[in-house]
Structure formats: C-alpha cells, structure tokens
Amino acid sequence: MEMLIRPLTSGDLDQIVAIELEAHEYPWKKSIHNSCIEVDYPSQVLEVDGELAAYAVYNYLYDECHLMNITTRPDRQGQGMATKIIHHIYQDAKQQGMKNVLLEVRASNHPAIQFYLKEGFKEIGRRPGYYPTKEGREDALVMQKDLTC
Ligand SMILES: CC(C)(COP(=O)(O)OP(=O)(O)OC[C@H]1O[C@@H](n2cnc3c(N)ncnc32)[C@H](O)[C@@H]1OP(=O)(O)O)[C@@H](O)C(=O)NCCC(=O)NCCS
C-alpha cells in the first residue's frame, strides 16, 4: 500500500465533494471548500495507491490550530487514515509555532469524539445549539489538544 500526504488542490474538489456527500449528514458545499482554497487555509489529502482516502482542512490563528474538517472516505474508515492525517497536522502546526489544536464536533458524532479522545483531545466547553439538525439544533463539544507536551 503506497501512501502519500500532500496539500489539497482545486483539482481534488470534485472527488472531495463526492466523499463529503457520502461521509457527512451535513456536508460542506463545494463553495466552502473552494473558498478555503482561495483564502489558502492549510489542508492535507491522504492518497492510498493514488486514490484519495482522507483529507483535512484547518487554519492557524495566533498560536492555535483550528481543525475545520477531517474526513475519511467511508470505505477507508477504521484503517488509521484519519490518525495518519492528524499526526501530519500536529507536525505542521508545531513547525508553525502552534501551541494547541482546537475543534468543534457534534455532540452526537460518537465516532469522531472517540477518535479525538484517543488522540488526547479534552472537552473544554460546549456551544449550545451550534449545529442544525433535522429536529432543530444540537450542541457542539469544543475539544482541545495541547501540542506543547
Ligand atoms: C471520524 C473519522 C474522521 C475517523 O476516521 P478514520 O480514518 O476511520 O479513523 P482511524 O481509523 O484513524 O481511527 C482511529 C481511532 O478513532 C476511533 N474511531 C474511529 N472510528 C470509530 C467508530 N466508528 N467508532 C468508535 N471509535 C472510532 C477509534 O478509537 C480508532 O482507534 P482503533 O481503530 O484503535 O479503535 C471518520 O469516522 C469520518 O470521516 N467520519 C465522518 C466525518 C466526520 O464526522 N468528521 C469529523 C467531523 S468533526
């Protein structure tokens, strides 16, 4: 299995939008991905044998890395893809002087919460009603990982 991690480019967009639709109940639209590329947010794509398997988009603000999106293609989930990408992000963020990684996650997104807990993220707060749901709104957990220890 040949793996490659590289920044996301506009040439990946159609594939990413297709994965996004498969993997998320509330997917990012192509326009959101497009504007992240336009404003030059850092991003990573993980290719396995030349096929896009996972990706992440993040942002740096002062000494904080804000993880905005991390997604593994459904048929590649549970194979360590997100782990590989997030470890790459820690390295990148540390090199850029970031002290922690911060993210919001739906309170009902148990696979993602388990993933972040395994990665050493701690819940540091909640944003009530942050996300829309079919029935109304749901909370976001705010989670943080210290990169300095
Ligand atoms: C969350 C997500 C990115 C994890 O990606 P992944 O490539 O499957 O994760 P990994 O294989 O690297 O898993 C690492 C650890 O995360 C946890 N984990 C991953 N999927 C899990 C699941 N379905 N249930 C419980 N724990 C899970 C486990 O602790 C796992 O370690 P283990 O394999 O030793 O048990 C993936 O489920 C996904 O793309 N979900 C849809 C998009 C999403 O919700 N993104 C996060 C938005 S904040």
Automatic annotation (TrEMBL):
Residues 3-148 form the N-acetyltransferase domain. Acetyl-CoA binds at N109. GO terms for molecular function: protein-N-terminal-alanine acetyltransferase activity. Keywords: Acyltransferase, Cytoplasm, Transferase. InterPro entries: AcTrfase_RimI/Ard1, Acyl_CoA_acyltransferase, GNAT_dom, RimI, YpeA/RimI_acetyltransf. It catalyses: N-terminal L-alanyl-[ribosomal protein bS18] + acetyl-CoA = N-terminal N(alpha)-acetyl-L-alanyl-[ribosomal protein bS18] + CoA + H(+). Gene3D superfamilies: 3.40.630.30. It is found in: Cytoplasm. The active site is at E104, Y116. Its main location: cytoplasm. Its EC number is 2.3.1.266. Transmembrane segments: none annotated. GO terms for cellular component: cytoplasm. It is an enzyme of class 2 (transferase). HAMAP family: RimI (MF_02210). Belongs to the acetyltransferase family. RimI subfamily. Acetylates the N-terminal alanine of ribosomal protein bS18. This is [Ribosomal protein bS18]-alanine N-acetyltransferase. It comes from Kangiella sediminilitoris.
